[in-house]
Amino acid sequence: MSYADLLRGPHVMRLLLGTLVGRLPSAMAAVAVPLALRQAGASYGFVGLAVGAFAVASAVGGPLLGRIVDRVGQPRVLLPTALVAAVGFAVVAVAPGSTAAVLGGVVLAGAATPPLEPCLRALWPDIVAPGKLESAYALDSASQELVFVGGPLVVAGGVAVASPAAALWAGALLGVAGVLVVVTAPPARAWKAPARPADWLGPLRSRGLVVLITGLTGVGIAIGTLNVLVVSYAEGHRMPGGAPALLALNALGALTGGLAYGAVRRWRVAPPRRTLLMMLGLTAGYGLLCLLPAPPYMACLMLLTGLFLAPVLTVVFVLVGELAPAGTVTEAFAWLVTLMTAGVALGSAVTGTVLEGAGATWAAACGVLGVAVGTLVILAGQAQLVPAAAREEAGEAPARAAA
Q1: Which residue has the higher pLDDT, 230 or 281?
Q2: Where in the cell is it found (predicted)?
């Protein structure tokens, strides 16, 4: 099955594009908020505080909003949160010189970030055939690289035409527009999670899911390391495009890897073992980054580290859908996003400190250490990554054979 066939399926293109557009504000905020604050005369310390507050609010709000979606449906959560987040961005755009307004605005925008990623992943089983589900997840994980490329480009266009505040207004409008495309689609309106037991742990009562999202936190640490490392590398090496060019190559590698993974019609290796193999490939790529080679070779390493990222995410999406207890799938995907975001923040913070104190080689080691620990977690929890029903069936098979 080709990706063209998949995209021609009912509602697929609409939901994918709506989700990508609706997620642009989050990618734009990392650039637009600092630019707006600096233009208003804010210190770098306050800029870091504001961006950090946005990230923390997003991480905290994600699982909570995912749980509400599982209870009341997608439109009732997505549209109100898009409007609230737009108000948050508007507050920052109107009063970038006010400390209270900026902090209130970024916390509002972050906490109310519409959970479009988890919602789309919850919808895939309803809009594509079972045999096409993994290809849909691969397309999903690969296409999200367009968000991280497109967001900064929209900000650059807004700043060139008007101002950083205009870019924030554009982000607010794009978020609402993308959500409107999604919530007016029949699958989103019709989607309803199965009844779930009254358990405050929700999806976290699944041991396999806890293993999975803990392991993916290590991937987040590696991504956070890379985001800081390339800035330092570009300052010490003359190369076209600098750090943005290196990150763009990494995104290109992820896009290529995701599409190549999804093009495989049938995998002979089970998802838990496949996750481990992809994590090992990612570990190897980040390990080579410690060499910090000359720019041409560094460009190849950027492609290599990205190449395994989207396949890791794709097979993890499959496992999340299988491991999440009934009625908790949206919240489960939200926890995955939250833990990876926390890993990115941790990796960025630690790498910045190590860069100043020990140098670039040790800073690069933070990334490989993060993904290696994540790989060990996945290795140790292989048995937990098999859905309970499959484990029971495997246990009953020898008994049936003996009988």
Answers
A1: 281
A2: Cell membrane
pLDDT at 398 over 80: no
Report phi then psi at 400, rounded to 5. Answer: -65, -40
Mean pLDDT of 24-49: 86
Q: Would you state the pLDDT for residue 401?
A: 46
Token readout for 144 is 């999200």
Site of tokens 């720019």: 295
Please indicate whether residue 246 or residue 288 has the higher confidence score (pLDDT): 288
- The model's pTM is 0.83
Fold of 1-192: Growth Hormone; Chain: A; (1.20.1250)
Q: Which long-range contacts (CB under 8 A, 24 or more apart) does 284-293 make?
A: 286/222, 286/225, 286/226, 286/364, 286/367, 286/368, 286/371, 287/368, 287/372, 289/226, 289/229, 289/364, 289/367, 289/368, 290/361, 290/364, 290/365, 290/368, 292/233, 292/360, 292/361, 292/364
Q: Give the residue extent of every domain in the chain.
A: 1-192, 194-397
Asked if 22 and 174 count as a contact pair (C-beta separation under 8 A), the reply is: yes
Concatenate the DSSP letters of all residues of 144-159 into one string: THHHHHHHHHHHHHHH
Q: Is there a common fold for 1-192 and 194-397? A: yes
Q: What is the pLDDT of residue 212?
A: 94
CATH number of 194-397: 1.20.1250.20
Q: How far apart are alpha carbons 147 and 141 in whole angstroms? A: 11
